[in-house]
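Structure ticket #2291
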Amino acid sequence: MSDNHLHEKNSVIDLEKDSTSRDGVSVIIPGDKHGWLSHPLARSLLSWGVEERGIVPVPEEERMDTQYYKIFFVWFSMNFNILSFSTGTLGPIAFQLGLRDSCLVILFFNLLACALPAYLNTWGPRTGMRQMIQSRYSFGYFGIIIPAVLNLIGLCGFNILNGILGGQALASVSSSMSWDVGIVIIFIIALLISFMGYRVLNWYERVAWFPVLIAFLVALGVGGKNLYNAQPAAPATAPGIFGFAAVIAGFVISYSAMASDFTMYYTPTVPRSKIFWYAYLGYIVPIVLLECLGAAAVLASYTVPSWNAGYGAAGDIGGLLEAMLSPVGNFGKFLTVLLSLSVTGNIACTLYSMCFNFQVVVPAMSRVPRYVFSIIGTVIALPLSIVGAHKFYTALTNFLSLLGYWASAYGAILLVEHHYFRKGDFSTYDHSIWNVPGRLPWGAAAITAVILSFALIIPCMSQLWYEGPIGMISGDIGFEVAFPLAGLLYFPLRKLELRYQNTQY
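Resolution: structure written out below.
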């Protein structure tokens, strides 16, 4: 074995243990003056490979991971699940689109929307910072609390939707198991993975996709002939196309607010194009394939009695998948169980990122080990999943559409700040000021730009509970408006802020 390979292997092991202690002294949690991490339980967890690092930036000398392909599997496994499948069903169900129109919307808007989170993945190796900590350099120490709260709501919402889907699918294989029991099982498995942190997450995401692939291939093998039996659809309308596009964009753009959480340990010299393409393909391949399959399956369910019975009036995605796999008998039930477990990878990674958002919202919580917030996130999402299990489609449509609005504005502000005001120079993200409010931007420009952009976003909305005058005619174009408008507003506002704050880069 070569010296280089030995160095790579050892460096990955070291960083995934997170460098949480050096010579018996904690270096990760600020303010740990009384030996919080010297407790025997904390030491035991560290020895088992549990990651404790929270929002403290990773110094350049500790960014040693060279297994860059791992980020592809993180995003691939997160999206290669039944949530992507169910999102595709919204085209026909919620927006009355045919298969061709649904697939064209899925392809085009994903090609566009996946670029933003994929690009923000490339910042992690350069800054060594979690996504919300990077964002302090645009939104400020206190201003970032607002996006962090919105992101927490979004991440919790994703976990609720995934929990419902996983629970439904798991319960569909047994008449004696309720949706509630299935949801609890899904969350317990995801919590265990998230609790362990970076090392276990990366290992799990590298293997979790394969059994899911087998299950979907079998479903296509035994039921693929039925996908051609979809009923003819009415001509597509602009509100239907743009409404579905808002759902598609909200699904993927929201990953922007957690992008660098999974790349901050990579060596800072990695070519940015390599990280971009690994991440971009990790998003677009599973999302496009499964969303198109979901659209085709739900349309075919009207002409296949067993599929229609499985799907039912309540829109049971798990029941639909179980019906698709029923021709292979008990093996089909086994595959349905594997499909139900596909959501655990997404929930685990989402719980992982929620930890850092809790610490940004309440900075004093940075003293608390990361894994504690995995438990808190589960305690919040689990009962809400059980309560919302029977209102899935309404919740999914409203939730995903709303995510795209703020996430688009957030991404635009980060790009303008980095490329115009910081001239694309990552050295301006000074590690010594990440938690010093007086030396970070005030954040007034970023927050004001987001708020003012909603003056035009709101008239462009088209939701079940509200239709703006523009959205009523064109369909929901809120996220398309949010991105350029927030970026344009940020230019003059940030210039004004810099003048009064007297800060130069």
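Closing remark: The CA atoms of residues 315 and 409 lie 32 Å apart.
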